[in-house]
Here is the input.
Amino acid sequence: MSNSDDHDHDHNAAPMVEEISDFEVLEVAVRELCIEKGIFTQDDHNQWTEYMHTLGPLPAGRLVAKAWLDDDYKQLCIDDPVKASLAVGVDWVNSMPSKFGTPSDYCNPRILVDEPKVKHVVVCTLCSCYPRPILGQSPEWYRTPNYRRRMVRWPRQVLSEFGLQLPEDVEIRVADSNQKTRYVVMPTRPEGTDGWSEDQLAEIVTRDCLIGVAMPRADRKVDDKRHVHKAIHPYGH
Amino acid sequence: MANRENIMRHLNIVGQLQPALHQPQHAPYPDQIDNAHWRAYTRASHDVGGEADVPITWEEKEEEVWEHNTFVTCEVLAWRGMWNAEERRRRQNVDVGQTIYLGLPYYGRWLMTIAMGLVDKQHVKLTELIDKIEEVKQRAKENGGKVYD
Here is the structure.
């Protein structure tokens, strides 16, 4: 870079927070137009927002815990994940508020069962397909082109960046989600959990374990801490 | 032909594609582009699996109000029949082209796609959209620069 000009200060342009965000303006504009034109109602929008509030990784964690304790239920998770999801309060087919499933998630969940020498991990190379009804909204990193580019080709390296170092003799199977089929990983039950109740087990099956970038541990009830990129106007504050 | 050599070659070319902001000559002559480059340009730009990239720091991100609302609006538009999820995905992942695909925030593409869908399908006239944008901006200015209360 040349030192002969003094344009460097221009690179510190005013941050977006100083001006009205075109994204915010456009979001309000299209939403209000849809309501004014009768394409949907404010109540429709509110209902869907409330439905979103009910979603999160807890049902999937509960499903894994139940399967660890009940071999018949584990088999049901493999054979008929839609039916198995009902036991943890998730109805893929008749979910609220549309009563015919969410438009984007369809009804073909699959549970990928880890073994001591087989580790599954989930990606969506084409967009960001994710088992939302049972796991909630996907984390931002799952949506990045970087994760989607590399996970299918260098899974061992990417997993190590998430802090999961797998021995060479562990086979990694990467599942590429699509618009119809959504995957949840059922990790192996960790050591040190003998005699634990379903509630106790469910607590250690975190979101990252269910995507496959982490393994549950008896001493960990939350995902490893990562830096959080703050929003300008965060939702829910 | 989808053999390993051709796939690797394809990925190598795609890996070097960048949003074409500045080129000495855009729209090359026919003899300046080969079939492999034609294929790279005409692929769907969201088909990124296997492309090379450098390690990054994995981090969580808080959601903006507009991002959350954009997602909900897209789902409600499908619920009420303006589009289905396949069409929405094609519009926001493929139709936008590589520059916008890689250049906009994740939900920025979703949001742009709502506006374009409403206009394309003639639910909203372009002038109505422009007027509404101005109206929302004016309200925000009167509200101390805040779009949301």
